Amino acid sequence: MHAGISNRGIDNPANAAEWALAEIVNQPHILKRAVDEIDRVVGKNRLVQQRDLSQLNYVRACAREAFRLHPVATFNIPHVSLSDVTVSGYFIPKGSHVLLSRLGLGRNPEAWDEPLKFRPDRHLNTGSQQPVQLTEPGLRFISFSTGRRGCPAAELGTEMTMMLLSRLLQGFNWSVPRGTSLLDHLQSKDAFSSPPLILHAGPRLPAHVYPMTS
Ligand code: HEM
After folding, report:
1. Residue 142 lies inside a defined structural domain of this protein
2. N or C: which end of the chain has fewer CB within 10 A?
3. Residue numbers of the domain that contains 166
4. Required cofactors, per record (predicted)?
């Protein structure tokens, strides 16, 4: 189900944050680095706010890496070519149904070093003050896609994904339940075939920080 349109889209921030969380918890040094960043930027006495998100560059890199490695679906929504066109030497006649392989792009060994490894560092812009973007206009993977039919809500989708992931990381101590493994979840090809993610969550902030419902 898409956060914005339910009839044709399929992406959503909850899916992106869930994959990112599974990968992060699976590698404790990445979990520590992400949580340390949040503690440094935000602290433990208030929840992450929207204004913090641009400074959480390592968490942004984790979310971007989750989009690369775990597209919500194996293929992008089909598009129909309006005219004859040649792309990278391939002739595509007018009227063709064009499907981009999201799995193939994000895991392409010609574009990505060790493509099956979850390595957020690959997205950190060394020497740049700009926040890591979750969009990929070069289509080396597909998150919000690009062009005329690309997602018009990339900025909103980025903020929602980042807010959800950051607060989950900030608010809870995560662990894998004894006797279970994340491997089945992490090795599945898309959100439709993955088993549910089961983790333990314990509070990690002072009680007054959590919103109370009366
Ligand atoms: C993590 C969050 C999101 C992701 C990864 C995402 C990704 C995408 C992708 C891949 C497409 C299809 C592009 C194509 O056809 O090639 C799309 C289309 C679209 N998205 Fe999103 N989206 C997200 C959130 C949202 C939200 C929050 C909204 C609205 C509030 C939204 C509104 C739309 C609309 C209206 C389209 C159709 C655009 C068109 O066909 O012209 N998306 N999105």
Report:
1. yes
2. C
3. 13-209
4. heme
pLDDT confidence band for 3 (50 / 70 / 90): very low
The answer to whether residue 79 sits within a structural domain is: yes
Q: Per the annotation, does 62 bind a ligand?
A: no
Distance CA 71, CA 64 (A): 11
Whether residue 47 lies inside any domain: the answer is yes
pLDDT of 17 over the 70 cut: yes
Residue nearest (by alpha carbon) to ligand 1 atom 17: 151
Stretch among 15-19, 56-60, 188-192 having the lowest mean pLDDT: 188-192
CATH of the domain at 203: 1.10.630.10
For the chain, the domain total comes to 1
15 lines ligand 1 (CB under 6 A): no
124 is a domain residue: yes
Residue 200, helix vs strand vs coil: strand
Token representation of residue 142: 């597909």
Ligand 1 in contact with 151 (CB < 6 A)? Answer: yes
CA dihedral 135, 136, 141, 147 (to 10 degrees): 100
What pLDDT, in 10s, does the model give residues 25-56?
999 999 999 999 999 999 999 999 999 999 99
